[in-house]
Design a protein that fits this description.
With 567 residues, the protein is an alpha/beta fold. The protein is built from 14 helices and 24 strands. The two termini are 23 Å apart. The radius of gyration is 24 Å and the shape is globular. The protein is 28% helix and 25% strand.
Length: 567
């Protein structure tokens, strides 16, 4: 098979730094290069895509909610189709990895009460604040917890930033701003990548860091622009049943409560402490910001109903011909929301046809195509994960309990919700410039005659919102590519109209249903791109890394430094 060495500096904006892995080569002019093979187009079945998407999104599967009969049907279908595609069971002799989950439903919420010892501020659950617990306790109580404003709640040594420096928040309630310190920057240059949100801007990080610091509670100030969604999304997402991994005997640090407050509520609370929200927010954007003791105490309580159950990730593998213990991974989530708020016509099944029956079907279609082409040099893993809609739980569980060692996992591609509106001239790259996998993507785009368009809303942090993120946190380089914005018929205006229509009328609702009139040509073009990228990675000898300065680089370097068999 023909191979070529691709110079990274000539492919993407910004120099990509040399990784510590042996297979990355340096050219004679000093340019860093990767071994990127040329691969033929794959024989990918459109009928497979249609058949599996149609079946998974049928009413019989009842929205594929984990822990229901819909899950049993889904796992059975994927097991059957993975085996028929020519894969082998991915977990020893089993096609599944069990994922233990707990569902916690808060109830009987007391108000959030803030006091300075003389005057009480009282806020109602839902309309003014929301809160949940990650602890498996029948009752959650926060009692007279001292409050500290910690800016953006970031501790990033590699960026010279620590909002917790010099302050002890053990047992206290920290108040945190959403997003990154430089989210208002017009461009993408800055200590936290300017307009583009980093991991440090996501609520998941902020709660985790608060727990590591020993905080009893963490409360994020909601602001629609930097959050990229309104309070209605917060209220609906953070009330009702919440699913989490069962942590077992050695859980990670957890707060007693995590929550959000409306911006006007935060403004009133800070005013009671003699502080101004706008002034503190401006100060928090500057290096050397120091946390502020508010001289206030926070209290609330609520009860919890708990249900434990086991869900399943489905795993198939195509063993490599020369390096079977080196792995390239493909991920997609099989789950959806089950039954949900009724549509006007009475339909209450969230079928999840686009999100993500299409991505799940793509795992099978790609597995078939790779098996037809013959085993590549490295092993290909096809992982259908559970509970993405509950917070990437299946992906997190696998990444924390990997069947195939992560230091032997070269990298991967995540597939979530394919566009079914016809072909596009481009693809949308979520999180461009993060890793040396961009070079593989660029080579595949060139082979297919297409272009890459950066995500038009970098401030929304979409890279940190799908299953690949669980692997990225553990250091594994991952690509996340969506359908294009520039449609062959209608251009970017038509592409925006399609995206807006889906978001407004079908996304996470009962009308995300299979349509026999869908135009699959764009989906098949995107699949061809994913096939090339996956096969290039599987035929390569290189171990691509995160770019120098990326938040996941240090984790990968540490993993590689202790590995004897992988990177």
């Amino acid at each position: 098979m023909m191979k070529r060495a691709i110079g990274l500096t000539g492919l993407l904006a910004g120099a990509l730094a040399m990784a510590s892995c042996d297979a990355i080569m340096t050219g004679g002019d000093g340019a860093i290069e990767l071994d990127i093979p040329e691969v033929e187009a794959g024989d990918i079945s459109e009928e497979t895509m249609k058949d599996i998407t149609r079946t998974l999104s049928s009413d019989e599967f009842e929205g594929r909610m984990p822990g229901t009969e819909g899950e049993e049907l889904t796992v059975a279908l994927l097991t059957e189709r993975f085996e028929a595609a020519g894969l082998q069971p991915g977990n020893g002799d089993s096609w599944v990895q069990e994922v233990p989950l707990v569902e916690i439903t808060g109830k009987n919420f007391a108000p959030l009460t803030i006091t300075d010892g003389e005057t009480d501020l009282v806020y109602d659950f839902g309309s003014e604040w929301v809160g949940v617990t990650y602890q498996e306790e029948a009752r959650t109580q926060l009692a007279n917890s001292d409050m500290v404003f910690v800016g953006y709640g970031i501790n990033a040594p590699e960026r010279g930033w620590n909002d917790y420096e010099g302050v002890d928040v053990a047992g206290k309630t920290v108040v945190i701003l959403v997003n990154d310190p430089d989210y208002e920057t017009e461009g993408l240059e800055g200590k936290f990548n300017g307009r583009a949100m980093t991991f440090y801007g996501r609520w998941t990080y902020k709660y985790e860091e608060a727990a590591r610091q020993g905080a009893a509670a963490a409360i994020i100030v909601h602001d629609t622009e930097p959050a990229s969604y309104g309070w209605n999304v917060v209220e609906s997402s953070w009330s009702g049943p919440q699913a989490y991994p069962q942590y077992g005997d050695n859980p990670p640090p957890r707060t007693t409560m995590n929550g959000w407050v409306q911006k006007d509520v935060a403004r009133e609370i800070l005013a009671a402490a003699g502080q101004d929200l706008d002034e503190l927010s401006a100060a928090a954007k500057t290096e050397g910001f120091e946390a502020v003791d508010l001289g206030l105490k926070a209290s609330t309580s609520f009860e919890n109903d708990m249900r434990t159950f086991t869900s399943q990730n489905v795993i198939g593998v195509l063993p490599g011909s020369e390096a079977p213990e080196e792995y390239v991974i493909h991920t997609a989530h099989w789950d959806h929301l089950g039954r949900c708020t009724r549509a006007p016509d009475g339909d209450d099944i969230c079928n999840g046809a686009v999100d993500n029956a299409t991505g799940t079907a793509a795992l099978v279609a790609l597995a078939e195509a790779h098996a037809k082409a013959g085993a590549p040099r490295r092993s290909l893993v096809f992982l259908a994960v559970t509970a993405e809609e509950s917070g990437l739980l299946g992906a997190y569980y696998y990444a924390s309990n990997p069947v195939f060692p992560l230091d032997q996992t070269v990298g991967g591609i995540n597939m979530d919700a394919f566009q079914v509106a016809g072909p596009a001239k481009d693809v949308t790259v979520v999180g461009p410039g993060k890793s040396q996998l961009d070079a593989f993507m660029s080579a595949a785009l060139e082979a297919d005659g297409r272009t890459a368009t950066p995500n038009p809303s970098p401030e929304a942090g979409y890279y940190y919102r799908s299953d690949h993120f669980a692997f990225a946190k553990q250091g594994v380089p991952m690509l996340y590519i969506n359908g294009g914005q520039d449609l062959v018929e209608g251009g970017t205006e038509a592409g925006k109209a399609v995206a807006d229509d889906y978001r407004a009328n079908r996304y996470h609702g009962p009308k995300d249903e299979f349509n026999e009139d869908w135009d699959w040509s764009g989906v098949m073009s995107d699949l061809q791109l994913f096939y090339r990228i996956g096969r290039m990675m599987a035929m390569s000898t290189s171990w691509p890394n995160w770019n120098e300065g990326d938040e996941f680089r240090a984790t990968r370097d540490e993993s590689c430094a202790t590995s004897d068999a992988g990177c």
